[in-house]
Amino acid sequence: MPLARPHIEPRRVPTADSVVVKEIYLSVQGESSHAGLLCSFVRLTGCHLRCTYCDSEFAFHGGARRQNADVVAEVKALGAQRVEVTGGEPLLQPGVYPLMEALLAEGMTVLLETSGAIDVRLVPPAVHKIVDMKTPSSGESDRNDYRNLQSMNANDELKFVIGGREDYEWSKRLIAEHRLLDKPYELLFSTVHGKLTPKDLAEWVIADRLPVRFQLQMHKYIWHPDERGV
């Protein structure tokens, strides 16, 4: 029997004052309950997962180390009240925690897009955490850190990216087994773009009367997937 791979633990380094940034840009939020709203994005470099449907492989490497203060200044200059910290996997970088605190201190609404493979308990409670629960078709479902189901609060959203019927049934079982409908956070269902039609997923949700938020990644319908900074 293969040995289980250990979960990555979050690290908090008080002196961390910088992060490696792949890109910073202004766009509209493409998913979650914030979809359609003007949003700045801070994409950090690096990820320890290799999901089969990853749409941000370009963020695995490269970028430049930036002082948190400079990142905050650039985000403020973009002019949006809302900002998302994403990746890659942003929680791999110790500097992301003080960065999020600094963005909150500027009065911004701060979103965090994270893989679900790192416990989010050290993330500032005011941050809106969007935690991606990896389904079987991702190839990384054994990396899910189930402590997240207890670490999340009412600001947060648990996302299931569905690539087929197996993923859908797996997600339903997980929701039932962990009584996720009783949790304070919202549940999101979306499709693997180009693999499962939104119509199929919507019809499954309707047939099962499943009280989740069905969503589309609207940015993928607006811009070409290879376009950067959108």
From TrEMBL:
The keyword Iron applies. It catalyses: 6-carboxy-5,6,7,8-tetrahydropterin + H(+) = 7-carboxy-7-carbaguanine + NH4(+). Mg(2+) binds at S56. PROSITE patterns: RADICAL_SAM (PS51918). The keyword Iron-sulfur applies. One of its GO terms (biological process) is tRNA queuosine(34) biosynthetic process. Keywords: 4Fe-4S, Iron, Iron-sulfur, Lyase, Magnesium, Metal-binding, Queuosine biosynthesis, S-adenosyl-L-methionine. GO terms for molecular function: 4 iron, 4 sulfur cluster binding; carbon-nitrogen lyase activity; magnesium ion binding; S-adenosyl-L-methionine binding. Substrate binds at V28, Q29, G30, R43, T86. Residues 34-225 form the Radical SAM core domain. Its cofactor is [4Fe-4S] cluster; S-adenosyl-L-methionine; Mg(2+). Binds 1 [4Fe-4S] cluster. The cluster is coordinated with 3 cysteines and an exchangeable S-adenosyl-L-methionine. Binds 1 S-adenosyl-L-methionine per subunit. It is an enzyme of class 4 (lyase). Pathway: Purine metabolism; 7-cyano-7-deazaguanine biosynthesis. S-adenosyl-L-methionine binds at Y53, C54, D55, G88. [4Fe-4S] cluster binds at C47, C51, C54. Pfam families: Radical_SAM. Its EC number is 4.3.99.3. Homodimer. Belongs to the radical SAM superfamily. 7-carboxy-7-deazaguanine synthase family. Catalyzes the complex heterocyclic radical-mediated conversion of 6-carboxy-5,6,7,8-tetrahydropterin (CPH4) to 7-carboxy-7-deazaguanine (CDG), a step common to the biosynthetic pathways of all 7-deazapurine-containing compounds. This is 7-carboxy-7-deazaguanine synthase. The gene is queE.
